[in-house]
## 1
Amino acid sequence: MRCGGVCRITVDSFGCELGMNTPAEVSLVEVGPRDGLQNEPVPTSVDFRVDLVERLADCGFSALEVGSFVSPKWVPQMADTRQVLDKVRRSNDTPLIALVPNMVGMNAAIEANVDRIAIFSAASESFSQKNTNCSIKESFERFKPVVECAKNNSIPVRGYVSCVLGCPYEGGISADKVIAVVEGLFELGCYEVSLGDTIGVGTVTGTKKLLLELAKSVSLESTAVHFHDTYGQALPNILTALECGVSIVDSSIGGLGGCPYAKGASGNVATEDVVYMLDGMGVQTGVELEKLVDISKFVFANLKRSPASRVANACLSG
Ligand code: HMG
Ligand code: MG
């Protein structure tokens, strides 16, 4: 099979035939227009964001994060999320998600008619303070009315836990802390909780240990993984997570991203790299690599730099 100028070797058999315990299907959640663009040094235009969301909405992702309703003083890159949602052509196929930290954000999300919201906390107290100006406990106090309001408006709520494998301020984070926050988010009513390796320090061993512990109290079927790729460990970590029973993966087109409150953290794992790996394993995602590479070309021509995705660069150089 060819992608751009590069020959791809496709394994016909499923991973399980090779003795790998991986799912036959993986749901991909694309976070580039939010987690990616929130980290651009100069905020991108509404028109560019709309164009990107419309292109990605046509790819077959299980959900697509379009932006956040957070303080524009804290994250100016996401200030125009309302305008993006007003302008974007809606299709019913791919639900659009926006991040919401509190009731101010929730009211804005309802006015913008977003399909789903995501609430976000952390397994590290220091990160919670830096990111949202409150303790973990206070973040949950803020979430209670948000989730209640979401329920009343039939808006499904996704949950995030940051720093599950390490914190830029506290270093190592114990599994107990992660598990308590994950359980709290499910108890509140989240349909899915995404585990954020915010600064991309996780390794295969840490990932496996955490997921084996987590599986004792939580269904990994409703647990997503969200790896940033700072140390190049995201793909092996994802493979490990799949072998542990996870089948929902967050990724970002071209590897866009980082976190404004996690200095030095690089982008999320690139969607193209994840799809290439899963295609090669015969795991279905419903997302076509060729379309992603075209979108990566569009994004990085606009941003005037090369994608972080190894696969996109290989395909585009062919
Ligand atoms: P605060 O300053 O403590 O809020 O910020 P406050 O309640 O004291 O209000 C202060 C002012 O902000 C008020 O306005 C509020 O109305 C306004 P004023 O009276 O001064 O004119 N305000 C808002 N405006 C717009 N939208 C809102 C909102 N809330 C209050 N929702 C707050 C608290 C949480 C708002 C702030 O800390 C914030 O916006 N933080 C941004 C956090 C963020 O977006 N971080 C990046 C996303 S998380 C991430 O990237 C990690 C993830 O990818 C997973 C992973 O990788 O680990 C998800
Ligand atoms: Mg992130």
## 2
Amino acid sequence: MTFKLPDLPYAYGALQPYMSAETLQFHHDKHHQAYVDNGNKLIVGSGLEGKSIEDICKAAFAGKNAGLVNNIGQHYNHIHFWRWMKSGGGGNKLPGTLQKLVDDIGGFDKVRADFINAGVTQFGSGWCWLALRDGKLEVMKTPNGENPLMHGAKPILGCDVWEHSYYIDYRNARPKYLEAWFDNLVNWEYVEEMMG
Ligand code: MN3
């Protein structure tokens, strides 16, 4: 099996003004493509060929294979990142099953604030997350290409806080990017799909 770059599920300009076509062109066509290409090289001889991408993420992390952690981790993260966004997303109307999990850890406003804070305080490149652990919702952050799968949890929402995700549109204002992203782009239906 070789990894392939998935098409964006919308046009490059679909997420404007919160994420520009230029950002999506570079981010999807160049950055994600590079993770796919590097991952396809690094998987050869790793002993993990043919395994699911989720299993590769976990095994590469357990085996301290930094190249695969970052490249296949980033491939996994970006496959979902494109789908965690949509035109006209955001808002605080959550699918019912998710609303209950959010209420269990303090409610929407607290989860929003904790998620944004996780992204703001992730030093350097990485991601912030909503993840499920033992059936409970958890806000997490991870460095570089890591994701919650590598830390015993199941990611249901993740925001890319590498500079390549926001520097064209927000320059160094990572908090502004995270607020705009959470309030206007999150595809809650896909978050619910990830819970299944
Ligand atoms: Mn990225």
